Amino acid sequence: MELLVASEARVLGCLIEKELTTPEYYPLTLNALTHACNQKSNRSPVVSLDDRTVLRAVDGLRDKKLSWLKTTAAGRVPKYGHALAERLGLGREELAVLCELLVRGPQTVGELRGRASRMTPFADRAMVETVLTRLMERGEGPLVVRLPRQSGRKECRYAHTFEGVPEPPADGEQTAFAPEPARLAVTAETERLNALEEEVRSLREEVAELRERFERFRSEFE
Predict the structure, then answer these.
(1) What is the C-alpha to C-alpha distance for residues 65 and 59, in angstroms, rounded to an integer?
(2) Which residues contact 121 (CB under 8 A, 6 or more apart)?
(3) Is the pLDDT of residue 55 over 80?
(4) What is the DSSP annotation of the chain?
(5) What would the DSSP string read from start to end of 65-98?
(6) Spatial contact of 112 and 158, defined as CB atoms under 8 Å apart
(7) Is the pLDDT of residue 157 over 60?
(8) pLDDT band at 176 (very low <50, low <70, confident <90, very high)
(9) pTM more than 0.85
């Protein structure tokens, strides 16, 4: 599969995330997708992409058969979705793990379990490890790699390969300790609430846009 650029990886991760966490608002308008890419919660690094960059990323994913566009005869706002599950034959657990790696970068098994559980339940660490093994041992090529353990860390981290195999950080680079399970649970809940607030804001803007378009349409017949 052709490698992605950073903006395409962020867009793909966000499309997966919104499908799994807020399916009632999926697929996403360009406005909602841009908001999702620029969220300050559950993102690393935090970015500020404009609509054009996001649209180019969506187009790039469509060229790679990883996203799709939904339009209607009524001329409503186009919406975008991902085709990763269908293209690569992935289940919900694999999607959740890949999503976290796409939007938040390399993580340990414990971090992945705490964060991906907001999208689908993971009973224990062993379940996450099983999913990671499946993703690493795919016959078509690994979607995940295990990075060398860094000095001062107790666990290895895992990374996706959609942008290629990442370079491990230097031993002297500052790293953070994995938070305790209770902190991960609280963080996941906060992130879900923040995501819902982002969706509500995006929907309000979309409704306002549709109302304005309707008023213009009605005025043509008055």
Answers:
(1) 10
(2) none
(3) yes
(4) -PPPPHHHHHHHHHHHHHHHH-GGG-SEEHHHHHHHHT-SSS-SS-----HHHHHHHHHHHHHTTSEEEE--TT-PPPEEEE-HHHHHT--HHHHHHHHHHHHH-SB-HHHHHHHHTTTS---SHHHHHHHHHHHHS-TT--SEEEPPPPTT-SS--EEE-BTBPPPPPPTTS--PPPPPHHHHHHHHHHHHHHHHHHHHHHHHHHHHHHHHHHHHHHHTT-
(5) TSEEEE--TT-PPPEEEE-HHHHHT--HHHHHHH
(6) yes
(7) yes
(8) very low
(9) no
Fold of 6-166+179-217: Arc Repressor Mutant, subunit A (1.10.10)
Instruction: Say which residue, 1 or 134, is predicted with more confidence.
Output: 134
Q: Which pLDDT score, from 0 to 100, does residue 73 have?
A: 59
